[in-house]
Design goal:
The longest helix is centred in the C-terminal third of the chain and has 18 residues, at about 65-80. This protein has helices spanning about 5-10, 65-80, 90-99; strands at about 15-20, 25-35, 40-45, 50-60, 85-90. It has one domain (about 5-99). The chain is α+β, with helices and mostly antiparallel strands. Strands 1-2-3-4-5 form a 5-stranded mixed beta sheet.
Length: about 100
């Protein structure tokens, strides 16, 4: 399935801007799905390059904790990966729970 990210971004709220490695990145949430106690969040990440991530977080501890976890996962990924157009990110605890 191909997603027209530009079209999706026109319908989203204002982005959250973060600084990673001295560069500004805008995070646009364009999809959220809840499955049992997890949130699957689709985010366009726009900075020196444009890419998308799907982040799976545990929603049991509330929105604030989930938001912090999303930002941490995206920040870590941006620091490590300089080329991918899309990534799936999740906390190691969730990976263990799925197996």
């Amino acid at each position: 399935m191909h997603l027209d990210v530009e079209r999706q971004l026109r319908t989203t709220h204002e982005p959250l801007s973060i600084v990673v490695g001295g560069e500004i990145w805008d995070l646009y949430v364009f999809g959220v799905t809840r499955v049992e106690r997890d949130w699957w969040v689709q985010i366009a990440v726009v900075g020196p390059r444009a890419c998308t991530v799907t982040v799976r977080v545990d929603a049991a501890n509330g929105r604030g904790a989930a938001a912090h976890e999303i930002i941490r996962l995206v920040t870590d990924w941006l620091l490590e990966d300089e080329a991918s157009e899309h990534a799936f990110l999740e906390h190691s605890v969730l990976e263990a729970r799925a197996s």
